[in-house]
Structures are given as structure tokens and as C-alpha cells.
Specification:
273 residues, mainly alpha, ABC-2 type transport system permease protein, membrane
Length: 273
């Protein structure tokens, strides 16, 4: 079977497994509604903390509240989409430790699709909604000189950012084949990464900004595209075209994450029990 056939098989398997969990969740609609609203409220407390900070200051490293809200909205929405799609990947280490990953290996479906869709949680849609609400507030508050390029950049940035976070989820899961108990390390780059991106790059040391630009390219999730939309100077004095580089960066990240996943899966030797 070629790459296209395996991809189609994986998407189909993911859809079937996720659909099963959605039907299971929707059997208790009131519970789903409460957990989704709870997720929205809990994640929203992050932005409430930022608003409280701005009640004491007029700007944060030169950025006004609406501009920080713009960064926050882009990051939170992109991460929310990735977390909804692949948030279950962090459970892989547990499966490796207790040997239950073996049951996935004997099924006629790609292991990555099975792990990603395992215990699919529709309640995570609350994080996406919360990010979109903050992004909507930012767009309503900012006086942006819209051009065709800026309008196109908005959806492209959200999709590319979600793909970059998805790649981080997969790469982190691949690392758990070796480390086994490394979910917190993975969370440091996923949940920690989105928290980092909620603040302006001018807050952080240049070495950290270089790291999340050239090593783990999270800056392409929002910092660089947002610099173009907001008319802000680019971090590290990078050229203007980097604002439009998120799609190829996302493709490269996904390709590297796929290679890491294959390497990790090949190295798996079960528990021996």
C-alpha cells in the first residue's frame, strides 16, 4: 500500500474511533455540556490573569492589551485544535509501560491513528471556543489596516499553527517510546509552548526567542505572522517574508514528527510479559 493509501486508511480509522467516543459522550448530553463549559471557563482564567495584569499597567513590553489578546487568541485557538485532535497522544507512555500498546499493534489500522483517537474528548472544544472569543475581542479592539495578504494570513496562520502543535504532540509521543514516563516532558513543550506564545516576544531573552524560532519553531504559530498583521518589528530582526513561512514550516515539522514516530514505533519491544 502506498503512502496515499496508508494516509486514507489512517484518516478513516481515526474518524471511526473518534466517532465512537463522540457517540459515547453525547449519550450524556448534560454532562458533555457542563464539561465543555467548564473547560472554556478554566482555560479562560489564563486570559483573566492577563487582564488583571493590564489593570495595573498600560503596556507589557510595549504591547497593549488588545495586541496581547491577538497573540493569545492565535496561540490558544491553534493549540486548542491540536489538543482536540491529538491531545490523547500524551497517554502513550502509559500504554508502553503496561503493555496495552500491543493490542493496538495487532489491529488492522495504523497505530498513530488509534493512539490519537483513543478517548477522543469533545469537551476540549471549549478551549477552541475560548481562543476564538479572545481572538474576536482582539480583532474588534485593534485598528488594523487590512490588506488581502493580512486577511489571507489569518486562517493560514491558525491552520499552520495547529499543524505545528500537532507535530509537537506526535514527536513528544515518539519520545515516550524511549523514556516511557515522559508525559510531563511532552506537556512542557505543548501546554508550556502555548503559554509562552501568549506573551510578546519582547518579554523574553533573545536566546529563548532564537530557540523557539530556529530549533522548535513555535514562533511561526503566532509571533511572526502577528508581527506582520500588527505592523510590529519582527523578532530577531528577521526579514518580512518569514511572516508567510508558517505553512512550509508546518509541513516540515509534520514530516520530521512522522519520521520520529516511525523510529519510535520500530524501537518498541513490548514489556516482555
Amino acid at each position: 500500500m502506498g503512502e496515499g493509501g496508508r494516509l486514507a486508511q489512517g484518516v478513516r480509522a481515526y474518524g471511526l474511533i473518534a466517532g465512537m467516543w463522540i457517540r459515547s459522550t453525547m449519550a450524556y448530553r448534560a454532562s458533555f455540556a457542563m464539561t465543555a463549559v467548564g473547560s472554556l471557563v478554566v482555560t479562560g482564567l489564563d486570559f483573566v490573569g492577563i487582564m488583571l495584569m493590564f489593570s495595573q499597567v498600560d503596556a507589557l513590553a510595549g504591547y497593549a492589551l488588545a495586541e496581547v489578546a491577538f497573540l493569545y487568541g492565535l496561540s490558544a485557538t491553534s493549540f486548542g485544535i491540536a489538543d482536540l485532535a491529538l491531545g490523547s497522544m500524551e497517554r502513550l507512555g502509559r500504554r508502553v509501560r503496561d503493555g496495552t500498546l500491543d493490542t493496538l499493534l495487532v489491529r488492522p489500522a495504523p497505530v498513530l491513528a488509534q493512539v490519537a483517537a483513543d478517548r477522543f474528548a469533545p469537551r476540549r472544544i471549549g478551549r477552541v471556543v475560548q481562543g476564538l472569543l479572545v481572538l474576536g475581542y482582539a480583532l474588534a479592539s485593534l485598528d488594523i489596516d487590512w490588506t488581502a495578504a493580512k486577511l489571507l494570513l489569518m486562517p493560514v496562520t491558525l491552520v499552520s499553527g495547529a499543524a505545528i502543535f500537532c507535530a509537537v504532540f506526535v514527536a513528544g509521543a515518539a519520545f515516550q517510546f524511549v523514556a516511557q514516563d515522559a508525559s510531563e516532558v511532552q506537556n512542557a513543550f505543548t501546554y508550556g509552548g502555548t503559554t509562552l506564545l501568549q506573551y510578546p516576544p519582547t518579554v523574553f531573552a533573545q536566546e529563548l526567542v532564537r530557540g523557539v524560532t530556529f530549533v522548535l519553531p513555535l514562533a511561526f504559530v503566532n509571533w511572526l505572522p502577528a508581527s506582520h498583521v500588527l505592523g510590529r518589528p519582527y523578532p530577531l530582526e528577521l526579514p518580512g517574508w518569514v511572516a508567510f513561512a508558517s505553512p512550509p514550516v508546518a509541513v516540515a515539522c509534520c514530516a520530521l514528527a512522522g519520521l520520529a514516530w516511525r523510529a519510535g514505533l520500530r524501537s518498541y519491544r513490548s514489556t516482555g510479559s
